[in-house]
Structure formats: C-alpha cells, structure tokens
Design brief:
Layout (H helix, E strand, L loop, with lengths): L2 H11 L9 H33 L12 H34 L10 E8 L2 E5 L6 E3 L1 E5 L4 E7 L4 E4 L7 E3 L5 E5 L5 E7 L11 E7 L1 H12 L8 H9 L27 E2 L4 E2 L2 H9 L1 H4 L12 H12 L3
Parallel strand pairs: 1-5, 4-10
Antiparallel strand pairs: 1-2, 2-3, 5-8, 6-7, 6-9, 9-10, 11-12
The structure holds dinuclear copper ion (CUA).
C-alpha cells in the first residue's frame, strides 16, 4: 500500500462518534454513554436476579428475607415502576431534547448555507450566492452554524459526518438539512451511510473546518475561474472530457461528473478512493474501471502521451 493510499485510509478511519467536535455531537455522545451505562446496569441487575433465582430454585423465601408481601413489592418496584420511570425519562430526554437539538436547523438560526448533492459516487458541493462548485471536500468556517442542504441526483444516499452530527438521507425529490458547526479547525471524514450501489463504500466526504479568514480566502479562490494552461492537454480535454466535466473559465461545461475547475487543490480523487497525485491521476485516466469498478467514467482510448498531457493539464488546475 502506498503512503498516499494509507493517508486516505487513515482519514476514513478517523470517524469516531465518540470524539464529538460540535455542540450537537456532544449531546449525541453523552446520550450514547448514558444509554450504554444504563443498559449495562440493567443487564447486570437482571442477570444477578436470574442467577440468584436459579441457584435458590428449591427455596421459597427471598434471599434477604421477607414474605410474600416483600416479593410482591419487589415485582411492582423493580419489575414495573423502575422500567417505567427509567424508560420514560430516557424517552423524554432523547426524543425531546437530544433529537430536537440535532434536527434540521431553521435557515434563520444559521449563518450560511451549503448545498450538497449525492451522486453515484461522489459529492457535489455548491455555495449558494457564489459560483463556487467543488466535489468531495466540504470546507466550512469553524464555530459557525452551517446549514447543509442535501439532495440527490440519482438514488438515495445518506450524508454522515460522525464527529459533527447525525445522518441525513438524501432522497430523490426531497431536501433534507443538517447543521454542521465544528468547534475547532480540523479534518472530519464523512461517509455515505446508505447503500447506493456498487461503489457505495468509495464515497468519502471530507469536511475541512478552517478559521473564518482562511475559509473566506479559500472560497474566493474557488469562485475564481480556472487558470487553465493552453498546452496539448487543453484541446484534448475539450474533445474527450468536456461533455461530462465542467472547468469554469473554459468551454468545458459537462454536468455528469465532478466539477474540475480547481481539481488540483483537492487531496483525493474519485471521492477518497485514491490520493490526488500524478501517479494515481495517470492510473485513473488510463483505467478508471480498474480503480473504481462501476463508476460512470468511461475508459477512453488514450495513448500514454495523451494521458501525460491530460495529467499535466489537470495538475495545473489549482
Ligand atoms: Cu452514496 Cu452510499
């Protein structure tokens, strides 16, 4: 395994619901710990009572004395009242407090909106009010309530960034929203969490939370048209790739695959499948179906020289 692939795998491995980095995820992880500890105590209690009943199966009295009245009290107290109180409190807390606080944010309570569209198999990301379009790497400012509006271009996907909030399904004909509010700068790997076809497992979404000033610079760079070179790769791209991919600032306007205006600034290719370096880009252009079987990128009849020209053209798209 190359260093680059290891890096991609390490990114994907950093998804931990118990490492919360947003107010919503803090509530979810506290709920998780309370549920786990409560269920463990309940299980231990029931197991102890069962074991004691089994060990004392030939006796009629309770281990701690008391007659029939004590036994009835035990049944009512431990068998009926305790579960009602415990389960009702958990229901009220989880349903009314935790779930509501992680539910779809109202647009008035958030300071910015990002549109995320699920595709087989990549994420299209748009920043409303700007012309910026990117793929698979969702940049957000830290300590900012970001309203993520999710839709799909094809089948049902599910958007999940475990360290930041719950999942939302991306359903044809519907929009669902989730709040992302990272409490510190960092990289938070996300995932498609709903089986969506052959390459469901290769649909990594990387959330990059940056200090506000840094985010603004990034967004300004993304809004700018491509600084595309005019070498042999440019003409070849227009002939071979432009019907599927867009590069803003050039005649390429395709809407099938990811926007490639600033593709060289991203860390991975094919939604986290391979690192974004020249060797992997060459491999991807030469035989995309080998790298990610089933994906919509056709295998083009390109010579080695043509692949090299495309690699050098695409690597210039910072
Ligand atoms: Cu998209 Cu699973």
């Amino acid at each position: 395994m190359s260093g680059g692939v290891l890096r991609v795998v390490a990114l994907a491995g950093g998804q931990n619901v118990l490492h919360p980095h947003s107010p919503a995820e803090h509530r979810i992880s506290v709920l998780w710990w309370v549920m786990l500890i409560g269920a463990s105590i309940g299980f231990a209690l029931v197991a102890t009572l069962l074991l004691s009943g089994w060990l004392r199966r030939n006796r009629t009295s309770l281990p701690f004395g008391g007659g029939e009245r004590a036994a009835t009290g035990l049944i009512i107290g431990l068998g009926i009242a305790t579960p009602i109180v415990v389960l009702s409190s958990l229901f009220v807390w989880s349903d009314i407090f935790v779930i509501r606080s992680t539910a779809a944010p109202s647009p008035s309570s958030t300071s910015m909106t990002v549109d995320v569209v699920g595709h087989q198999w990549f994420w299209e990301i748009r920043y409303p009010g700007t012309v910026a379009v990117t793929a698979n790497e969702l940049h957000i400012p830290t300590n900012t309530r970001v309203d993520v509006v999710g839709t799909t271009a094809d089948v049902i996907h599910s958007l999940w960034v475990p360290e930041l909030n719950r999942k939302i399904d991306l359903i044809p004909g519907r929009t669902n929203r989730v709040l992302l509010d990272a409490d510190r700068a960092g990289t938070y790997p996300g995932e498609c969490a709903e089986f969506c076809g052959l390459q469901h497992a290769h649909m990594l979404l990387i959330v990059i939370a940056q200090p506000r000033a840094q985010f603004k610079t990034w967004l300004r760079d993304m809004e700018a048209p491509a600084q595309a070179s005019t070498g042999p790769g440019a003409g070849l791209f227009e002939r071979a790739c432009a019907s599927c991919h867009q590069i803003r600032g050039t005649p390429a306007r395709g809407q099938v695959g990811p926007d490639l205006t600033h593709v060289a600034s991203r860390t991975t290719l094919a939604a986290g499948t391979i690192p974004n370096d020249s060797a992997h880009l060459r491999e991807w252009l030469t035989d995309p179906q080998h790298v990610k079987p089933g994906n919509k990128m056709p295998q083009l009849p390109l010579s080695e020289a043509e692949v090299a020209a495309l690699v050098s053209y695409l690597e210039g798209l910072k």
